[in-house]
Design brief:
Blueprint lengths: L1 E5 L11 H9 L2 E4 L2 H10 L5 E4 L3 H6 L3 E4 L12 H11 L2 E5 L4 H9 L6 E6 L6 H10 L3 E6 L4 H11 L6 E5 L7 E5 L1 H10 L8 E5 L3
Parallel strand pairs: 1-4, 1-5, 2-3, 2-4, 6-7
Antiparallel strand pairs: 7-10, 8-9, 8-10
Helix pairs in contact: 7-8
């Protein structure tokens, strides 16, 4: 039994490795978050491997299958259920290999131009319980902080950063990375709030938020 953890594009379909394409073809089955999303990717590259939801990973491994695990976008296990799946597969004694590739986290940091010598990655912040505590932690930390945010909560997130960050500390918003409307905005929380309020189109899409180190 073998589990290949395969990174897929975060937007632009060209951002997939030759090795990833080969493994997706060779695997007995591709397990994913949403088969509809993954089938579009496979179809684009003329790959006809069977797909199933990621709930079937462990049962497929028990049958001795070669399973390719993918997320809807990016690297499985980074802010998605893949983490638990890999942990259980390891306990089963499966052979596990990584097929690295696109990551919104790494992409945002690479183009931020902000002070990010070390950082804490929070993934998606909780919507309610514990949210205030985390923003307090981000504001008090000397390290850079990185988290993902949805378009529905980006303004509230900036308001919380304005409340907790020292004056002048900059934040980077990286929206729709690798997609048609990719956008990068750097500024203080107050500046970003003003800009997004003036142009509501800039509130749309998925965000990677990078808070520079103190």
């Amino acid at each position: 039994m073998k589990l290949s953890v395969v990174a897929t594009p975060i937007g632009n379909l060209e951002d997939i490795t030759l090795r990833a394409l080969r493994v997706l073809k060779e695997a007995d089955i591709v397990c994913c978050e949403d088969t509809r999303v993954t089938k579009k990717l496979l179809s684009h590259f003329d790959i006809h491997t069977l797909t199933a939801t990621d709930t079937r990973v462990l049962s497929m491994l028990e049958q001795g299958k070669h399973v390719a695990l993918v997320s809807d976008a990016g690297t499985p296990g980074v802010s998605d259920p893949g983490l638990e799946i890999v942990s259980k597969a390891r306990l089963m004694g499966a052979t596990i290999e990584v097929i690295p590739g696109a990551s919104a986290l790494a992409a945002a940091i690479s183009i931020a131009g902000l002070r990010v010598p070390t950082f804490t990655f929070y993934g998606f912040l909780p919507t309610k319980k514990g949210r205030e505590k985390l923003f307090t932690e981000i504001g008090a930390s000397d390290r850079a902080s990185v988290f993902y945010e949805s378009p529905h909560r980006i303004m509230k997130a900036l308001e919380m950063l304005q409340k907790h960050l020292e004056e002048g500390r900059k934040v980077g918003l990286f929206r729709e990375l690798t997609k048609l409307y990719e956008d990068h905005i750097i500024g203080t929380p107050a500046e970003l709030l003003e800009l997004l309020a003036q142009d509501t189109n800039k509130q749309k899409g998925e965000f990677v938020v990078v808070v520079e180190a103190a």
